[in-house]
Sequence to fold (286 residues):
Amino acid sequence: MGIACAVSAFLIWGLSPIYWKSLKAVPAFEILMHRMIWSFVFLMPLVISQGQWSEFVGALKNRRILGILTVTTLIVGANWFLFIWAINSDHILQTSLGYYINPLLNVVLGLVFLKERLRPLQVLAVLLAGLGVAYLTIQFGEPPWVALAIAFTFGFYALIRKVAPVSSLVGLSIETMLLSLPALGYLVYLDVNGQGAFLRLTWTLDLLMIGAALVTAFPLLLFTVGARRLNLATVGLLQYLAPSCTFLLAVFYYDEPFIKAQLWTFVMIWTALIIYSYDSIRHYLR
Fold:
């Protein structure tokens, strides 16, 4: 049960570019606004049915928690926007690279902000990943900004959420709630000015915009169920399913250019992740 839920969650995340690509006719920022609103509408009944209403209300009354979640709302909003924009701007490979980099970036963030000590193999993995990014930067004349922005926003989101003592479901519900009113105001403004896509293009696009809630919340629920039943090392290995699926989609389904410089960068990142995973499993078993 645990492995099935976790694998399903990562597969949905990894294949989600297909979903966002189908909304290419809608501007990325408008998609983000719909994603926030419909996710909040979808999540609130779940909060109540899961018996987490008191935790939800308690978090809203706690100024510290609400302040932290306000910051994470802005960060996750930026991450979602970057991801959607990158998918629909034919930068799917960069999103894959970003989420491959993220676990290694988390190690660095833990070192800098949480004063965690790095083991020798972790240092080697981080250096190898850094070398891969540097190589790509030299070859193209500029850093892979999209990949780095996605990795850093998700990394800081995870880092800051660590200090907010709320469950994943309650935290995400509050985050979507905080942006729902501004998002609704923006969509009303677009509609009044005859610019909004909702109810103006096709009913298929309307349903897809509403369905963004399922793409957001459903894999999160599957992941939560799976993570509770699996050990940390297994979850750590399974997390690479998502960027691997995205990578395969970019290269073999959407035919994004994949040149030698990118290949060597991915090889260095993959090698770094193998080293990192080996070290994590060895440390966990000890």
The first helix runs from residue 2 to 21. The radius of gyration is 19 Å. The chain has a mean pLDDT of 89. DSSP finds twelve helices and no strands in the chain.
